[in-house]
Amino acid sequence: MLAWNQKNFLIVDDFSDFRSSVRSMLRELGVKVVDTADTGEEALKMCAQKRYDFVLHDFNLGDGKKNGQQVLEDLMTDRLISHESVFVMVTAENSQAMVMSALEWEPDAYLTKPFNRASLAQRLEKIVQRKTLLKPILQALDRGNPTEVLNACVALTQQEPRFAPLCLRYKADALRDLNQHEPLEAFLKSILADRPQPWAYAALGKLLFKRGRHAEAQTVYEEAIRAFNAMPVLYDGLADVLVATGDSKRAQKMLEEAVRLSPYAVRRQRLLGKLALENEDFDGASKAYRQAVSQGQFSRFKDPETNLGFAQALISRGGERGLDARTRVEINQTLTEVAKENGNDAGLQVRARLMKATSVASSDPEMAAKLTEQAMERLEGMEQFLSADAALAVASQLKALGQEDAGAGILKSCAEIYGDDPQVMQNIARQTDDPEILGAGKAAIDFNIQGIRCYRAGKLGEAQDLFRQGLALQPKNISIALNMAQSLLHMGVHNLDAASLAECQNSLKMVGKMPESDARFERFQKLRLRAFGE
Amino acid sequence: MKDQDLGLDFSMVIASTVHDMKNSLGSLIQAHGQWVKQLPEACRGTPDQGVIDYEFAHLNGMLVQLLGLYKLGVNQLPLRPDYHELDDFIEAQLAFHQEVLVSRGITARYAVDDFGLPGFFDRELVGSVVSNVVINAIRFARSEVLITAGQVGEQLVISINDDGPGFPARMIEEHTDYVLGINQNSGSTGLGLYFAANIAKQHQRKGVPGHIEITNGGELGGGLFSIYLP
């Protein structure tokens, strides 16, 4: 029997009747400490102040509030509860929360309302038994140490083979965190050959995708969806693959399916909005972005890009017809929020103003001109790099608002920063024919390609020389700057003379204004850490 | 007027209504449970109380099943199989029905063959099937219900046996034509078997689907329901 009287409980539900009913069940079991909260936000605060052994959380706490899955995500990401603690998701319906599952974090159990004391006690005791057994794994997880997790899985499986199924997912996650790609692939395939589970399909699909094996990833996801046709996470995965292979129409269909199954997911709605916008389905884009904005209010995935995307979708939906009053209010609201909440981000300030100017260009040209002017002023002194997508949008808006030269300037700097990416250059070419913009980077890019070749062949000196020449032509090119720094750091930072170290640090400083959303940001951080030793 | 005229998807209307009904019933059950606790000892455990507890459980089971059937119909029934300890699974079932069993004076026990590894199935879906069969068994049992789990060949078999009069002969003969039962005045029983068979069928391993069987006899001599999961 469990020592109930030593355990701390937190009940989170918006119905006071339910809270008091569960509280009295727990009291009857001998529990002394029962705290309650009626919103997820409150629950998070309480968990930050006190360690709870058990959290019983209602899944649906009403519209416009964090739901149980979001609270669980926040608790785990911010490490507000231990892996040894028990989180039980209370749902009104058997399958309701299931569609949320196979995400990164899963509760220890689902409990369907109504339940009685006997059921509650039985579930909790079983979970505690299981967690006691898994203690070494859970403690390693709390320490964030995947190697220990792996060892603990092996030890537990050896000690008692019947516990092996309990370890499968922990083991797979640990292999993933350790980047042990081949063992992970073999392990997941063996699970799928024996007893297919949705999470194993999702993990394998993700791994193959990450390794660039798109066709195989697609096959895995398609097979998974045939076996488990109501798991949104599988549609998400397939959509990612389809985007990468350029089939954005079908990718959108997949996300629409996932949203139908599980509409409450900010990231999914945002991605759907983005895809629909690309596919010129402006109704669909508006709808998805609207959901993403409103759900995002209370989510850790709140993101100004969502608001900007929403405004863009609404403007595009209006098209030649222009915008009705209600839409203008909606656009104004969503953009004001961006400007207000990102006071220090020059790029966002510029983009919010230009977007707004675009939306009022025909209804209020004076306002549009004023906003454009403000945006241009901020653009002037801005050091930070816009992402390629943002730069392209800003350039086309500037052009449409009559600022052709400023637009061309943006395209030019975009070509310098991202010129080695053929996709970006293609998009730039859609907006301009100017050979000075389209051809300026060619020589630098050639140096870069040759440099990479030499670097791979181990000809370090030659590689450095080539990167140096490329960088002299295009000092803001992120790829060349990172390659320059990496080739200098190759022999170890301690072997660099003062001049080389300065060169390395300067090239990193120059691209230090890159957007954090850039895929190379992590690589940049690592190089910076080595070069500056911070 | 047809539902198309209203622009309504009628099955969705039913499903969302059932969803609300289930929430309502949940609150009712919870409140009733609180209220009973405040009654003097002598007023508890009366036959009326048995009826109330049984019908609560029965109603809840039917609503869960109806929602399940709706999702099955629109291809939205999420199947999420995982490994589960069988004693844990069956204990949870009995705990769920504890009040009804006590107030109807029925003894429930279970027996699990030890076969090393836990079972592999969707806990919620198989749980709702077993729960409905247990409610049915409680209705017909005189004094005992027995749940067993074991392995037959490569398959896991969970059986529910009672000491009542057993299933009618016609039902056993025609149990593969479950849906017929609905038209033939046998109420929701046919639908329950249809649901159970479908849930069983969703569980597949290497091309072998699960299935259900009903018969009479077993250790307790009454109705015997079995679900086979590969």
UniProtKB/TrEMBL annotation, chain A:
Biological process, per Gene Ontology: phosphorelay signal transduction system
Entry-annotated residues carrying 4-aspartylphosphate: 58
Domain annotation Response regulatory: ranges: 8-128
TPR repeats: 232-265
InterPro entries assigned: CheY-like_superfamily, Sig_transdc_resp-reg_receiver, ST_Response_Regulator, TPR-4, TPR-like_helical_dom_sf, TPR_rpt
Regions that span the bilayer: none
Keywords assigned by UniProt, alphabetized: Phosphoprotein, TPR repeat
Domain of life: Bacteria
Protein name: Response regulatory domain-containing protein
UniProtKB/TrEMBL annotation, chain B:
Database matches in SMART domains: HATPase_c
Protein EC: 2.7.13.3
Keyword Protein transport listed: no
Residue ranges constituting the Histidine kinase domain according to the UniProt record: 16-230
Identification of the protein by name: histidine kinase
Keywords, alphabetical: Kinase, Phosphoprotein, Transferase, Two-component regulatory system
InterPro entries for this protein: 2C_sensor_his_kinase, HATPase_C_sf, HATPase_dom, His_kinase_dom, Sig_transdc_His_kin-like_C
Catalysed reactions, as listed in the record: ATP + protein L-histidine = ADP + protein N-phospho-L-histidine
Enzyme class: transferase
One MF term in the entry's GO annotations: protein histidine kinase activity
Gene Ontology BP terms: phosphorelay signal transduction system
